[in-house]
Amino acid sequence: MKIIVCVKQVPGSSNVQVDPVTGVLKRDGVQSKMNPYDLYGIELGLSLAEKYNGEVKTITMGPPQAKNVIIESICMGAKGGTVISDRKFAGADVLATAYTISQGIKKCGDFDIIICGKQTTDGDTAQVGAEVSEFLGIPNVANVISVEEITGDKVYLTASLDDKVVRMSVKMPCLISVDGDINSPRLPSYKVKQTLKDDIVEFISFENFDDQNPDNYGLSGSATQVERIFPPEKNNEKHTVEGDAKQQADELYGLIRDCKLI
Prior knowledge:
This protein is α/β, with parallel strands linked by helices and 262 residues long. It contains 6 helices and 11 strands.
């Protein structure tokens, strides 16, 4: 069984600046980490590989330094990983990102299951997994909370919907997106990291893709564009209300009335 887990490097802090021209996050010089939801995806992939004699590889899209999340996944137990990296991919929206990842997966060879985290902590769209499956022409199940069994060419799993929990089967190859309640991710091995070779991570770029139309990638391939994005304004102003209960209530009522909230 061949399993591919999609991972992403995200900012390690919420204090991230936004490019006022392109509307995308400024990632240069910002401390990064593995997207938390992807850790659950890696753990599921490794558990299935151990149970069904499979192999896990990871794939990510980003700048060259995104190889750090691939290395982390290998230290957790993955057999290898690929970074999709090219300046032509910069500024991609959800659609262009999903298309780029689907093209990268095609270059990785055959697979049985693709696993994605529920969403990323920088974009929070929770759409990339489903769109990747559409570009690959395979079935997709979101919000997976458990995988019970794999028999023949079918995966039997449980997914959590808004108002119900559904048990179903899906035919492989398929893509599933997992929620944070599915497992407890293992820690990466420091010993494994010490033995890794420099070429353990594979890099592929635009020139490796079958689709050589640059209009399908990056800002050119994005169907949507952010008009304006900005960090929330911080207001540290505070007012302390003192006195007994009646005095506090009267003053609080006056403040609310002055703010025209009532």
